[in-house]
Design goal:
two-stranded antiparallel sheet, Membrane-bound Lytic Murein Transglycosylase D, Chain A, globular, about 350 residues, Lysozyme, single chain, 14 helices, 3 domains, mainly alpha
Length: about 350
């Protein structure tokens, strides 16, 4: 290995160890997702705090950083949180990206911003952005099919934890461009399916594959060396040919095919891929445009849940959809048809 690369890696590891203010000790049964959820951080945050962490091999007793401390004196300008503020709004009003805001406020919990809290909005040095970051365009409330409150209410009323600001932003800004969704009802159907598939916007990787990458599964002769193509994203994308097709359609390159784990680690990509899947496999199916929720379930997992032994799961999806409709202020009778009836 190049000596300069060795030094760079060593410096990075020393820095992140030095700047870590709280650790978690791995116990039996821990996986990266469960650790991230326990401390209310994203999987991307966990990986950023632990450079080189291998989530497929977590040793009992290993120390994992779950909160970093900002270097003293790194902030040059502060903002005091007011009633109605949320992270994206603060970042937008102060001319910085949401990613910059997170970097300036390590460990901040955007789901519980307290009025009067002081946050950093400007600091010296580079913000830490890199070429793989997928930034969302500014959000204008008048341009969105659903409001932030409607989105939060839909998730929480369905029995899941409050979503992050970043998830709302990616949800509303990618629905049209990546999913061809232009109606509030279809967006409600999409979100209901996503909530079921991801355990409430929590799981972005196929749980059964987190320990060993599902070695031997999803294998074709066209796989890129060193890559495993198990399920990732809010609607789990599998097989190399799907990663390749999604990458070409969304980004005009092969970034997801050559680095599949981006789909699980980057929230913007996870949403983009899920909307892409919907556009390709669900959006144009008969019954979807007329509001038949069962038709969307049939398109996603019909062999098992519509004509197979797991119709109870399809009914659970429909129960979530009914709650999302109410949260979205769509006061119409939900249509169950298209799956098992």
């Amino acid at each position: 290995m190049n000596i300069f690369l060795r030094i760079s890696i060593l410096f990075s590891l020393i820095y992140f160890t030095y700047s870590c203010s709280q650790y978690h000790t791995v116990v039996s049964g821990d996986i990266c997702y469960s650790i991230a959820i326990k401390y209310q951080i994203t999987l991307n945050d966990l990986m950023s705090l632990n450079l080189g962490l291998n989530c497929q091999v977590l040793y009992i007793g290993k120390q994992i950083c779950i909160k970093s401390s900002s270097p003293s004196g790194s902030c040059s300008s502060y903002y005091t949180v007011k009633q109605g503020d949320y992270c994206y709004l603060i970042a937008q009003n102060n001319g910085i990206s949401l990613n910059d805001f997170y970097n300036l406020n390590n460990g901040i919990n955007c789901n519980s911003l307290q009025v009067g809290k002081t946050v950093c909005i400007s600091g010296g040095g580079d913000s830490g952005d890199d070429d793989t970051t997928t930034n969302s365009p500014p959000v204008s409330p008048s341009d969105n099919l659903v409001t932030k409150d409607e989105f939060i209410n839909a998730v929480v009323s369905s029995g899941y934890q409050r979503p992050r600001d970043e998830q709302y932003i990616n949800f509303v800004t990618k629905a049209g461009p990546d999913g061809s969704i232009t109606s509030k009802r279809e967006l409600a159907m999409f979100l209901a399916q996503i909530l079921w598939e991801s355990g409430g916007l929590v799981y972005l990787s196929e749980i059964a594959c987190l320990q060993n990458g599902c070695a031997g599964s999803y294998v074709t002769a066209d796989d890129y060396p060193g890559q495993k193509y198990y399920g990732r994203g809010y609607i789990q994308l599998t097989w190399s040919y799907n990663y390749k097709a999604a990458s070409q359609d969304l980004y005009n390159d092969l970034r997801l095919y050559t680095n599949a784990n981006q789909v699980a680690l980057n929230d913007g990509i996870a949403w983009a891929v899920s909307f892409w899947y919907w556009k390709k496999n669900v959006h144009s199916r008969p019954g979807v445009s007329s509001g038949q929720f069962g038709a969307t379930t049939n398109a996603i997992n019909g062999a098992l849940e519509c004509s197979g032994p797991y119709t109870s799961k399809a009914r659970q999806r429909f129960e979530i959809y009914k709650k999302v409709l109410v949260a979205f202020s769509i006061f119409e009778a939900p249509i169950e048809n298209g799956c098992y009836n």
